[in-house]
Amino acid sequence: MKILLIGNGAREHIMAEKLTKSPRCNELFVFASGMNPGIKKLASIYHVGNYNNPDEVRVFAEQNKPDFAIIGPENPIAEGVVDELDKIGIPSASPTKALGQLESSKSFTRELLAKYNIPGNPDFKTFTSDEGMLEYAKSLGDFVVKADGLHGGKGVLVQGDHFDTAEEGIESAIKFIASDGHVVIEEKFVGQEFSLMSFADGENVIDMPPIQDHKRAFEGDTGPNTGGMGTYNYPGNLPFLTDKDLVDAHEITVQTAKALKKELGKPYKGIMYGGFIATKNGVKLIEYNARLGDPEAMNALVLLETDFVDINKAIIDGNLNELDIKFSNKATVCKYAVPEGYPTNPVKGVEFTIGELPDEVKKYFASVNEVDGRLIIGGSRTIAFVGIGDTIEEAEKLAQIGVEAVDGPVFYRKDIGTQELIQKRIDMMKELRNDVMA
Ligand code: GLY
User: Is the pLDDT confidence value at 437 over 70?
Assistant: First the structure.
């Protein structure tokens, strides 16, 4: 098969690796927005252009005639690339623009869950003007302001983290109304966040292992928010979650997939990535994404034993139930090396090198250029290293060997995947759950 992959981050590097490992993949065509030396090596055609422009992607696809497409990042989905490819008979294992509202419109998803009585929603309201907004926000106690559309990770503002007083939060909400027409104001949840990504074909929902991301730039979960500094999973379940938490999160995604089909008349095909939070009152939904997470894709796909091309074909054909999708029951830790100054004022254009690595440490390029064989920092997250082990300790050590092997102006979070940090999450959940029992 000829496969078109859109995107050029570390997430797409591992997607490219898994696709090209399949005996069913004859050629991989990549439509990228910039260089990625890891993906380029795997691609038979590596094209750099504007992947957020559906016409450009369609012209590339018309020339190369892939059997199907798969999209890594959220923006091409929100811009309607899948719809455009569909017009020329190329199916995608990613959602259309309308179904992609699951991620691209926060109000759409909140209203959908409310309309179909799906559990997990906070107390929320969608506003198109500031009328009544301050009173409502204050009535929630601490609250969250969510821009309706995609804002590159900067559209969610949490009281206590990003703003202090209700008035400050409302000021930002008014700015989001000016840009998006809507804004969502919702109750703030307290608990432990986790990512549960699922393959979805419109009928069947198959979960990947639960994973925890680390959004803050610096150790101890301090500093500005980033695209994600690193992630980990445990064999089985995360140690601060109960089996019921996982069942409940799965059920929310199953019900949401059904609701999407009823609401829009078409099956959702692709990834449903639930950003969930375990609270003292059970599992709640923070948001959905319509694609694989980055870094979460690294944890999930290194463990995936089933042929990734088969899975994507089954998503398109609506027969995921016919596959026995398996992940190895191991721990993984992914750590990103990012440029000094990231995310606010990152170094870019500077060379870096990577020392010798043991075979067990896997590396995935992100924002990296290659000039005359030299690796150059691009400015966003640079390179992800993944360790796999029977225990989290083993996996963490391997990921750490990876980030330490980078010589250049980068930094990383040493604490991701360490027992000390994970124990804090376990203690927090214990305390929250004990409060309810008391
Ligand atoms: N891990 C965060 C994201 O992919 O959006």
Answer: no
Domains of the chain, earliest start first: 2-96 (3.40.50.20), 123-187 (3.30.1490.20), 191-420 (3.30.470.20)
DSSP state of 320: G
Question: Ligand 1 pocket, 228 CB below 6 A?
Answer: yes
Residue 438 has pLDDT above 70, yes or no: no
Question: Model pTM?
Answer: 0.97
Query: Residue 203 Cα, ligand 1 centroid: separation in angstroms?
Result: 25
Q: Please give the structure tokens belonging to residue 58.
A: 């369609």
What average pLDDT does the structure give for the chain? Answer: 97
Residues 208, 209, 210, 213, CA torsion sign: negative
- Closest by Cα among 11, 5, 414 to 227: 11
Q: Return the ligand 1 atom nearest residue 296 CA.
A: 1
Could you tell me if the CB of 226 is within 6 A of ligand 1?
no
Question: Distance from the CA of 308 to the center of ligand 1, in angstroms?
Answer: 20
Long-range contacts of 151-157 (CB under 8 A, 24+ apart): 153/225, 153/226, 153/227, 154/225, 155/106, 156/287
How much of the chain, in percent, has pLDDT values that exceed 90? 97
Q: How confident is the model over 158-192, as pLDDT tens digits?
A: 999 899 999 999 999 999 999 999 999 999 999 99
* pLDDT tens digits along 379-399: 999 999 999 999 999 999 999
Ligand 1 atom index nearest CA of 291: 4
**Residue 23 is encoded by which pair of tokens?**
């005996």
Sequence-ordered list of residues with C-beta below 8 angstroms from that of 423, at least 6 positions apart, any chain: none
Give, using CA atoms, the residue closest to atom 5 of ligand 1.
293
Q: How many angstroms does the Cα of residue 157 sit away from the middle of ligand 1? A: 16
Alpha-carbon gap, residue 434 to 210, rounded angstroms: 23
Measured from the CB, is residue 293 less than 6 Å from ligand 1?
A: yes
The rounded Å distance from CA 228 to ligand 1 centre is 6
Cβ-proximal residues to 284 (8 Å cutoff; 6+ apart), any chain: 120, 121, 122, 189, 191, 276, 277
